[in-house]
Design brief:
two-stranded antiparallel ribbon, 9 strands, 7-stranded mixed sheet, binds S-adenosylmethionine, 2 domains, 35% helix, Helicase, Ruva Protein, domain 3, Rossmann fold, 12 helices, alpha/beta
Amino acid sequence: MPDDPLAALPPLREVIARHELAARKALGQHFLLDGNLTDRIARAAGDLSTGTTIEVGPGPGGLTRSLLRAGAHRVVAVERDRRAVAALADLAAAFPDRLEVREGDALAIDLARLGEAPRRVVANLPYNVATPLLIRWLRQARAFESLTLMFQKEVVERLAAQPRSKAYGRLSVLTQHVCEVTPLFDIAASAFVPPPKVVSSVVRLRPRTEVIGDLSRLEAVTAAAFGQRRKMLRGSLKGAFDDPDAVLSRLHLSPTARAEELSVGDFVRLARSG
Ligand code: SAM
């Protein structure tokens, strides 16, 4: 085994060519081949020297290499595309104790049970399943020490949005209640192969300890309120409460306000009130 097994690996472009890993749109495939950029994402994930770093969608393995280079104790990478799983075989063979590649759909696998705690998720997410994956992780956020994720920039803006802004919505309330949200940096479309149509952004989510016991109630209330965001709350909340006027007045919230005027805390109080 060479001193630095990473240095002995072929360049990612060669791996892609050898395994005929032409990007497939249906799988949201946009690959990052610039090691400096993937190193930056790995660094953003913090200390990886304990527990398990879970990577979703490793593709040809650029970010996976960076996680290993950053000292990840153990990486479990979940990939749906069989061609990519095959392309990762050399990397897995070079790090038999530190890298496990699992073929599968991240939406169907319970990531909270992979490897040992502390668990953290790091991923350049496939755009088409990024939001459903995030919602699922929010429901089990305490299982993770942190989530360092790349989304379309517009999604990161929604996650971090403040009340009374256009981007503020259901995803902002759910994410900010469950996690501390720190937008980190943008990555230009030109950094990807093939380039997507939009700018991407990396965000770090740190799950909070004090969260509502039943997230599904907060999901229901925010779905009702933002589902009809132009309506007054007394009307839009009819789907979530028998008597929205009574609930709003008990909480000293204006029945004529609109969803975007309520803070995250206001929504949590609503969700807790039956
Ligand atoms: N991490 C790689 C990189 O940065 O170059 C690839 C990122 S690419 C945006 C998304 C990856 O997720 C692809 O490799 C794709 O095959 C994989 N993927 C798509 N849907 C998936 C799913 N449901 N479960 C697991 N992996 C998936």
